[in-house]
Write a structure and sequence with these properties.
Layout: E1 2-11, E2 16-22, H1 30-43, E3 47-48, E4 51-64
Antiparallel strand pairs: 1-2, 1-4, 3-4
Length: about 70
């Protein structure tokens, strides 16, 4: 099972921008996530086509199962 953490921000143009983080800590809390997102917004370190990040829109952890095929033996 693989997990990713998606951080969703509102931009200055009212659109949604997403940052995806692979393999988040298993014991991460909503408070941890909110604090990191607030730091990202305050630092103004990212800007996308739709502007700078101005607000927290949401966050979610996505679980997915990946099955890999060994094609070298076929």
């Amino acid at each position: 099972m693989t997990q990713v953490l998606e951080l969703q921000f509102e931009t200055t143009m009212g659109k949604t921008a997403t940052i995806t983080i692979d393999a988040p800590k298993p014991n991460i809390t909503a408070s941890d996530i909110q604090q990191v997102m607030a730091t990202i917004i305050a630092g103004n370190v990212f800007e996308v086509r739709t502007g700078a990040f101005v607000a927290i829109k949401g966050a979610r952890i996505i679980d997915r199962q990946v099955s890999t095929f060994d094609l070298t033996t076929v």
